[in-house]
Amino acid sequence: MNENLRNSINQLSESEAKSILLQTMLRLKKIPESNESQRQMIKDLHVWWNLKFAQSSKKCTEMEYKTVHIVCGESTTGSLKFGLEHGNKVIGFPDFFAAGPIWKLHEEEGRTHRYEWLRDHLNIEDDFIEKEYQKRFSKTLAELEAIPDHVPIVLWTGENAGEQTGIRYLLYMLKEKPNDAFLINTTLAYQELYNTNEIQYFCFHTGEVHPEKLNDIYQKNLPEALTLEERSRFEKEWITLSNTKGVVRILEDHIIKEVGEDYFDELLITAAQNLHKQKGKDFIRTGRLIGEVLGQIDGMVGDSFLEYRVRCLINQGVFEIKGILKAMRYYRVKLRE
Q: Where are the chain's structural domains?
C-alpha cells in the first residue's frame, strides 16, 4: 500500500500536488469550524483520499467506471471528483477558454499558437504555462481518445463563455466517438433544483457548486443524450469559433461573442478611481484592484488575464507602478494624475 501510494504521488504534476495539498488543508481547517461531527468530516476526508489515490494506485480498466465526465478547469475537476460516487471517471481539461486565442485549436498549429500566446502574455503561478501546460493538454486529449466506445460521456458547462466554448471544442474533438453524450448546464440545473421564491442564486460556473450538489444534479437532472443533429450543431459552432483571431470571449444572451482584449480596461480604471476615493491617492495593491473587478464580472475571465491588462495600462501610461512586474503580488499601481 505504501509503495503504491508513493508511486501515485511521484506521478503527480507540481500543480496537481499543490491542488491536493490545498484541498486537504481546507478540509482539515473545516473540522473545528463546521457543525458536522468530526467523525463525519474525517469520513469525508477518507472518501476524498480514496478518490484521489486508492483508485489511481492501480491501472484503470474499462470495468472500473461506468460513466466519463468531462469538465473545464482544475478546481471544477476537483469538486466533481469529490462529489460523484464510485464508478464515475472525471477528465478535467486544464484550460479555461474565455481568454487566449482558440484559432485552429483542434489542430497542432492552433494548440502551439495558444500556448505561445499564454506563455508570452500571462503571469501564472509556479510557471504552469512553461512547465506543464502543453504536457497536460496533450495528456487530456489522449484521455479523450482512450474513452471506450460503450461508455456514456457527460459534459458539464455553465452560463459563461469559458465553459460554453470548451464544450464546443470538446464535442468537436469527440466527433468520431459513437458514445452517448449528455450535456449538463449547471447554471440552469441549479436554478431548477434549488432556487425558491425566497432564495435565488445564480451560479455562473460549475466550480461554484458544492460537490454534493453536483452529484445531486447528476442524479436528478441528467437530460436526454444529445442527438446527432445537436452534436453536429455544436461541432459547426466550434469551427466558426476556431476561425476567429481574437483573445477574449463573453457570453451575451446565451451567445458566445468575441470582444476586444481591452474589453475590461474601463472596469479596471473605474475600480482604481473608486479605491482612490476610499483610500486616497496611495498606490493600490494590484491583487486588490483585480479582486474588485473579478467581483463585478463573475469570473468572466481569470485574474491572470486581468493582471495582463493592468500591465498593458501601465505601458499605455494610465497607471504608475511601484515594484516589479514579476507577478501581481510584487507591485502596486495608481492612476496617473
A: 1-47, 64-248, 265-335
CATH architecture assigned to 265-335: Orthogonal Bundle (1.10)
Q: Are 244 and 102 in contact (CB under 8 A)?
A: yes
- Distance CA(325)–CA(310), nearest Å, equals 10
d(CA 298, CA 294): 6
Residue 265: left if φ>0, alpha if ψ -120 to 50, beta else—which one?
A: alpha
Region 116-139: mean pLDDT is 89
pLDDT of res. 14: 54
Residue 132, C-alpha cell as written in the block:
506543464
pLDDT at 58: 41
Under DSSP, the state recorded for 330 is G
Q: What are phi and psi of 117, to 5 degrees?
A: -65, -50
| Fold type of domain 64-248 | Dna Topoisomerase Vi A Subunit; Chain: A, domain 2 (3.40.1360)
DSSP 169-231: HHHHHTTT--S-EEEEEHHHHHHHHH--SS------SGGGS-HHHHHHHHHH---PPPPHHHH
Residues 6+ apart with CB under 8 A from 97: 72, 161, 162, 163, 165, 166, 169, 249
- The pLDDT tens digits of the residues spanning 197-245 come to 777 788 889 988 989 999 999 999 999 999 999 999 999 999 999 999 9
pLDDT tens, position by position, 105-114: 999 999 999 9
